[in-house]
Design a protein that fits this description.
Layout: H1 2-12, H2 49-60, E1 63-64, H3 65-74, H4 80-83, H5 96-99, H6 101-115, E2 124-129, H7 135-146, E3 154-159, H8 163-173, E4 176-179, E5 188-191, E6 197-201, E7 212-217, E8 226-231, E9 234-242, E10 248-252, H9 258-263, E11 274-277, H10 279-295, E12 297-306, E13 315-318, E14 321-323, E15 333-335, E16 338-339, H11 340-347, E17 357-364, H12 365-371, H13 374-383, H14 388-402, E18 411-418, H15 422-427
Parallel strand pairs: 2-3, 2-7, 3-6, 7-12, 12-16
Antiparallel strand pairs: 1-9, 4-5, 5-6, 8-9, 8-11, 9-10, 12-18, 13-14, 13-15, 17-18
Helix pairs in contact: 6-7, 10-11
């Protein structure tokens, strides 16, 4: 009994450890760097894209096409869109707004016409995804000025990941502009000569949620895609590997990849042997649809694409010519035709609380422009031209836009409307998408 009391007293005492057992601090105070003072590495010190790709393959194995596109397009120092202005006759490709002012003017009139079915459309946000050289917005603003939109009636919000392209756009659109603090939701802000405010963002999610016109012209075709082929063992992903000569090549995955398990779902794979799927494109389409459904506005997508009938469209352009996409990464524009059938699935309204959007189209560019009276606009411009040379150039530009062998059928248009507009669109069919001549 005495022993028990002795043990209880012993274990009730505070435990005194020898000084050599005293625990020292297990951490070191490190001052966090100020983001405002951080700078990009110099171009001279930056590794080449090929070195980056080689190292990733060495460490992690073959790349998906989506990973490859992401590296080539968005690398901060060596990415294709990060280094230079690539949209011009001297660059790798040219877009419809650069071909003729008619294109941007007609798109602006389409937005104005369809907005009149909703109300005044003021105040208005114009949001462009991938604004290129800013030419489309210049044409938009010219039309809106004639339609009596004042500087306080609208603002421009441009989604652009490339600081180089942001500067190109700002120099064309603004009387003054400046970079913004890293804590700001926008990277750059500016103002036109007339006083219209312009903001640049690197992500659509940062754009304010207000009534907006959303325009995505040749935007979806550059978003990274996963490529799949249907084999006797099921769907397998096309990967990019490196051979013994340090040259990139395609290979088929031996097993079903996580991307195949996650992305290939009915009805995407019906009666198809090849698939190209962009999770980023599907996410942005759904985001745009939700924005217009909840906050009001319109979405217009213009891109070259198809309705699910194509499987292998991944390619590259250099100096206006098609080149192999795995050669000289970073020197060519990587692109894939937009699968509009997938955008429709992602954006269409569904039963229940989340209705998302009414989806119209796709329709061929030729049909859309002609239904928007592009020929009438052409005749007006021709009457105001003095020289035969100017007239021939304008006719050639118009032909480029509508000729089925050129852009007329390859490029297509799709629109998103708020789900609440069902009855209105039944009474007043969407201009450009419905054939009103019948």
């Amino acid at each position: 009994m005495n022993n028990c009391r002795h043990l209880i007293r012993l274990y009730s005492r505070p435990l005194l450890l020898p000084s050599i057992w005293k625990r020292a601090k297990g951490y070191k105070v490190v001052k966090r760097p100020d983001p405002k003072t951080l700078k990009m590495p110099s171009l001279a010190d930056a590794p080449s894209l090929m070195d980056i790709i080689k190292e990733k393959i060495r460490l992690n194995g073959p790349l998906t096409v989506a990973e490859y596109m992401h590296i080539v397009i968005t690398n901060p120092t060596e990415g294709y869109y990060m280094k230079k202005d690539v949209i011009s006759e001297a660059g790798d490709f040219i877009t419809s707004p650069e071909i003729s002012q008619m294109f941007g003017e007609i798109l602006a009139l389409w937005f104005y016409s369809e907005t009149s079915k909703m109300g005044t459309g003021k105040p208005l946000q114009i949001v462009e995804l991938g604004p290129g050289n800013g030419t489309l917005m210049i044409d938009f603003l010219r039309v809106l000025n004639r339609l009596n939109y004042k500087p306080n009636d609208l603002s421009l919000h441009l989604v652009e990941i490339s600081s180089t392209m942001q500067l190109v756009q700002a120099n064309r659109l603004c009387a003054k502009h400046n970079e913004c603090d890293i804590e700001s939701p926008y990277n750059r802000e500016g103002q036109t000569v007339s006083g219209i405010k312009i903001y640049w963002y690197n992500d659509l999610k940062k754009v304010p949620l207000n009534f907006s016109w959303y325009i995505a012209h040749e935007f979806f075709d550059v978003l990274p895609i996963h490529k799949f082929e249907h084999t006797e063992n099921g769907w397998r992903e096309l990967l990019i590997d490196m051979d013994e000569n340090q040259k990139l090549y395609y290979r088929i995955s031996g097993e079903e990849t996580p991307s195949a398990k996650l992305l290939i779902r009915p009805p995407l794979q019906a009666d198809r042997t090849e698939l190209e799927i962009s999770p980023r494109a599907l996410g942005i389409a759904r985001q745009l649809a939700e924005r217009v459904d909840v906050h009001g506005g319109l979405v217009l997508i213009a891109d070259y694409g198809h309705e699910g009938e194509k499987g292998d469209t991944f390619r590259a352009f250099h100096k206006h010519k098609v080149v192999h996409p795995l050669e000289n990464p970073g020197q060519s524009d990587l692109t894939a035709d937009v699968d509009f059938s997938q955008l429709r699935i992602a954006a269409s309204k569904t039963p229940g609380v989340d209705n998302y959007a009414i989806v119209m189209g796709p329709v061929k560019q030729k049909e859309f422009l002609e239904r928007m009276q592009a020929k009438v606009r052409l005749e007006m411009l021709l009457k105001n031209m003095q020289s035969d040379e100017q007239k021939e150039k304008l006719k050639a530009a118009f032909s480029m836009l509508v000729d089925p062998q050129k852009m007329g059928e390859r490029f297509k248009f799709m629109a998103f409307y708020p789900s609440a507009m069902t009855e209105i669109l039944d009474k007043h069919p969407p201009v450009g998408f419905a054939d009103l001549s019948k």
